[in-house]
Amino acid sequence: MNCANSNTKSSNNCNNKRANGEMKKSNQTPLANQLQASKSGAVANASTNASTSADAKHKKKIMNANANQYLPQRRPHQWHNTNTNTNFNMNSNTTRNRQQTNNNYSNKYNRSTSSSHQRTNSHHAFEPEKFIQDPLQHQQLVQKLKHTLHIHKAFEQQLGNRKRLQAYNHLLLLLRQWSNNDNQDNPSSSMPQIKLISFGSYRLGVHAPDADMDLLALCPPAVNVTKQDFFDTFVQTLRDDRKCTRIHPIAKAYTPVIKFYLDGIPIDLLFVKLIHEGNIHHWTTITKQHHHQQQQQHPTEFQIHDSMLRGLDEPSSRSLNGVRVAQYLWNTIPNHDKFKIVLKTIKVWAQVHGLYSNVLGFLGGVNWAILVAWVCKRHEDAEVTTLIKVFFYTFARWRWPKPVFLTPIVKNPPQGVTPLTIWDPARNPRDRAQILPIITPCYPSMNSSYNVAQPQMRRLREELHRADKIMNQIKDGNAQWTDLLKENDFFSDHVHYLQVRIIAENEEDHQAWFGLCESRLRILIAGLDSVNYGTHAYPFTKFFVRNRHENSGTKPIDAEEIVTYFFIALRFEAGAESVDLIGCTTEFSYSVNSWEGRKKGMDLKIDHVLQSDLPQFVFEGSLRKENKVEGEEKDLLRGDGEGDGNGDACLNRMANPNDCLASPTKKARIGRP
Question: What local confidence, expressed as pLDDT, does residue 88 receive?
Fold first, then answer.
């Protein structure tokens, strides 16, 4: 499959194209040429034939009679057979049936929310024995875990923490100078100043050396600056500062933010102008410098109270929510040291397996933190290794879309606060359709993982089950932490890939263009995963950035371009004879081409490539393994679990590069001639 330069027009009839399986060319160059798959032997899908025996084996453990069920449940291996757009929607044929269904759902929801936060409700959890009984052996295992995390650079060293503190202080100085310049008509030494509050991984003490700093500029009512000033004059202040680079304001984002680098440290800066100052209390965090076991105080920060939500609009409330969630987690976690080491382990595991990205429809930092907190709060006395085992055991078997709560949802706003939209699947069909809800603990309660769709869910479940098995092997002494945290075999487990290239001519343009394309990649992933097409998408949340020299005919031969690569694996269902992907790519093409900020040189290219044709840099120095099919993975990759007796293998495992003609003038074929 060859997908050429993206300049297609809008495709409002994308769904019709998918249903008809036809390619409708626009007046301009299409993004994708037709991809046809010729039937050759049994065609497989990794998620179609999940192990029935394994499902039966765990049935008694999983089917908890007391577990609260929100929606009609589907077994994990059946989920991919449901159209993503209609997943978990009520399909009543009449108004009466639909009303009755919603009433039943509402009753279940109300009953479950009142009891799901009790410790007696151990949904898919068990009262665990110690992972390792011998204390000395357990201590040695924890030390090995920390050593493995150091290899993955999960700990910030003392020099890095000092540099972050200096960046924090410098940014606070810039904010106060900027706000004071705008308040020259009312100068006063006692006038309230802007506060700079950290949240996210930095606030919780689990940030890696390359992690960004999530910061909130909290502006008191008396300071005469606005959000518009923040995205206008303060952006100019940053551009005038030599330490600040790669400045990218996104004022129209769901949560408005300025992204930039300060002295080499990536920073995401939010802004909230308070209407009512409320009560602000000092809140100081203590973190350990792991390498030297020294304690150092973060700058004095502030506890945000619900009363500060008064008069704020929803974007400002969302901006405050990140800080409030971090505060809640820190104040309610029973043991900070255990929480941090477990969360670091889960974050590294998610990153190496391509599961760490909220933007791409997987789980981000706050999602993983809430899940780890859920485990830690229910097993306060458990050791680190036991908590990690419970984490994988629990969420590999969690009956989604049952939500994860840390605290009951507060439906009524605090006194004086304008009612805000909360997550309520009993009343909101959009909330009801979300398949992996992880609910934030502060008002207004929201689903922090609303981006997750079926392709991402499929990979999460597979990797969680695989990690649970590895934990059993570690307990028996048959595996090491390196087996849990080793690089994923994503580029060896599939045959067919969609290669996305995001191209720009300079760093500033590339940052803006990449941010836009990254935020829209979920559209492409969802479109590729279709029962109508017989295709299943397997995204991997890792980007590869390369500089290249290309002679395009209009540029000098030494012109430099910045190219970011992204890959999506493809699997095909048994019986699929032809696959037309033009409808999938058309909608994605329009969503990026219609961006008003697109400049000359910003380009997007999509190609179908076989595993044997993948660029070498995706393996990053590891041995290149082609068509890896061993043990249980062989069963997953087979379409029907059986061969045809003539040596023909399923299309998901074998293909001849000559059979996939990446040419605009020929139809791309997958399989033998």
Answer: 23
